[in-house]
Design a protein that fits this description.
Keywords: Methyltransferase, S-adenosyl-L-methionine, Transferase. Belongs to the class I-like SAM-binding methyltransferase superfamily. RNA M5U methyltransferase family. Pfam families: TRAM (PF01938), tRNA_U5-meth_tr (PF05958). The protein has ten helices and 21 strands. The chain is of the alpha/beta class and 453 residues long. It has three domains: 61 residues, Beta Barrel (OB fold (Dihydrolipoamide Acetyltransferase, E2P)), CATH 2.40.50; 186 residues, 3-Layer(aba) Sandwich (Rossmann fold), CATH 3.40.50.150; 139 residues, OB fold (Dihydrolipoamide Acetyltransferase, E2P). A seven-stranded mixed β-sheet has the order 8-7-6-9-10-11-12. Strand 15, helix 6 and strand 16 form a beta-alpha-beta unit. Helix 1 packs parallel to helix 10. The protein is globular, with a radius of gyration of 23 Å. Bound molecules: S-adenosylmethionine. The site of S-adenosylmethionine has 21 residues, from helix 6 and strand 16.
């Protein structure tokens, strides 16, 4: 049965929100302010999910999707004009900070979007393409194991998109009908920091070869005949490829690689080594903004010891280290810790101690050894900080905590914990749009110690 509803809000997760017979209705593809005809496809207690059938009164922010094939595989917001996407992101952060973070007066600054001269597409340095069992290559559809076959990718930097297209064609030719049985995923990762910044933009026509790593994951149990030969052939398929890694090769191989197993990228003049398994921010233009905002929020002083929790390859550590006495960087992924140590040499820095382990465990050890932490930056994965890490932070009581987050709901949850008992006070949160066309929201929040310690 179809029903007509008014859409009034956007939820974190991407869906527009309306109400029907007292229930909250989630409508993917809608925009607040629109009147739409929908059909309910899933009912739960208190809420329901509906499929958009017809837009009866479109919102002025509605635009034609540039890459319709990506709507159900990651770009849920491409029907919303970019400036409106930014407004909604700040609105969502604020709502979550009020509701989950228990911060009724939360100050949330307007989202910093991609520079006006740069189209908010083709911004990524990294993408993982799934190989479906029928040999299709692309992104997984939301809430499904099906794969949207993609001949090109509107999110990857143009130089990397070209590599993707060539690699895709090569793999289809190489494996033929057996592609879906042989491979599980294809990852393209490029060092585009030097060719994409707010001055040069990422003009799709200026396609230059960039240093690129290709990582193929074999399907478990598959027996690839000559993975070395495939890796060799892929090395020469496009200019710029510096290394090819094939993981989980069955039989006697395990991991096969040709060329380098890492990239070197640049952010604001600093160099970073990035191994295939290490995390690195995906949008280079906005990474610079993120770093600048975090540094401006924390204002590290020359005599201070700074914690960089969830430090990855040492992105924030590198900038913090040049303004403070010492940085203690804590990261659980071994390859990223090795990269961070290599980065110290690349940037001539000797005041960073890169420790391998979980933040929750290492903070306890630091506390036990009576180590001092004057200020802290944490940048956890989407799940947010471990409760023990938050507890240790409260106990060690740095004067300020900069919380960099890629999930505003866990950010809000952790802010509620840090501010409980009046220990910390939220100063403000600054969304930075790292993920245009998607509902994902990156933010930098600043908390300062409150009361007497
Ligand atoms: C969002 S990334 C941030 C990395 C880095 N700050 C950057 O901007 O490049 C989160 C990092 O936390 C690491 N990680 C995940 N769980 C962890 C834990 N419990 N303790 C320490 N590091 C962890 C991941 O390996 C990843 O490198």
């Amino acid at each position: 049965m179809s029903i007509d509803v008014e859409l009034t809000d956007l939820a974190y997760g991407g869906d527009a929100v309306g109400r029907y017979e007292g229930r909250v209705l989630f409508v993917p593809g809608g925009i607040p302010g629109e009147r739409v005809r929908v059909e309910i496809v899933e009912e739960r207690r208190g809420h329901a999910r509906a499929e958009l059938l017809e837009i009866l009164r479109p919102a002025p922010e509605r635009v034609e999707p540039a890459y319709p094939q990506l709507t159900d595989s990651g770009c849920q917001w491409q029907h919303i004009a970019y400036p409106a996407q930014l407004t909604w992101k700040a609105h969502i952060v604020r709502q979550l900070l009020v509701r989950i973070g228990k911060q009724p007066d939360a100050l949330v600054h307007p989202t910093i979007g991609m520079p006006a001269n740069v189209p908010p597409w083709h911004y990524r340095n990294y993408a993982v393409f799934t190989v479906g069992t029928a040999g299709e290559i692309g992104f997984k559809l939301t809430d499904s194991h099906d794969v949207q076959d993609l001949e090109e990718c509107g999110l990857l930097h143009p130089a990397l998109d070209q590599v993707y297209q060539l690699v895709r064609r090569k793999l289809i030719d190489y494996f033929g009908d057996t592609l879906g049985q042989m491979l599980q995923s294809v990852t393209i990762r490029g060092a585009i920091g030097a060719v994409s910044n707010s001055a040069t933009g990422i003009a799709p026509n200026a396609v230059k070869a960039v240093p690129t790593l290709l990582i193929l994951n074999a399907r478990p149990g598959s027996m690839m005949e000559n993975p070395h030969q495939l890796a060799q052939e892929l090395m020469t398929i496009a200019p710029g490829i510096v290394g090819v890694i094939i993981e989980r090769v069955g039989g006697r191989y395990g991991r096969v690689f040709v060329g380098q197993e890492f990239l070197t990228d640049v952010v604001l003049g600093r160099r970073f080594r990035i191994s295939a398994d290490s995390f690195f921010q995906v949008n280079p233009i906005q990474t610079s903004v993120l770093v600048e905002r975090a540094m401006a929020a924390l204002e590290p002083q020359r005599h201070e010891v700074v914690l960089d929790g969830y430090s990855g390859v040492g992105l924030f550590s590198t900038f913090l280290a040049s303004q403070c006495a010492r940085v203690i960087a804590v990261e659980s992924q071994p390859s990223a810790v090795m990269d961070a140590r290599a980065g110290c040499a690349l940037n001539n820095q000797n005041n960073i101690t890169a420790l391998e382990g979980t933040l929750e465990r290492i903070l306890n050890q630091l506390h036990y050894r009576r180590e001092r932490i004057d200020i802290a930056l944490v940048d956890p994965p989407r799940a947010g900080c471990h409760p023990k890490a938050l507890q240790a932070l409260q106990t060690m009581a740095p004067r300020a905590i900069c919380y960099v987050s890629c999930d505003p709901s866990t950010l809000a949850r952790d802010i509620a914990t840090l501010c409980s008992g009046g220990r910390y006070r939220l100063v403000s949160a600054q969304p930075v749009d790292m993920f245009p066309q998607t509902y994902h929201i990156e933010s930098v929040a600043l908390l300062v110690r409150a009361g007497k310690w």
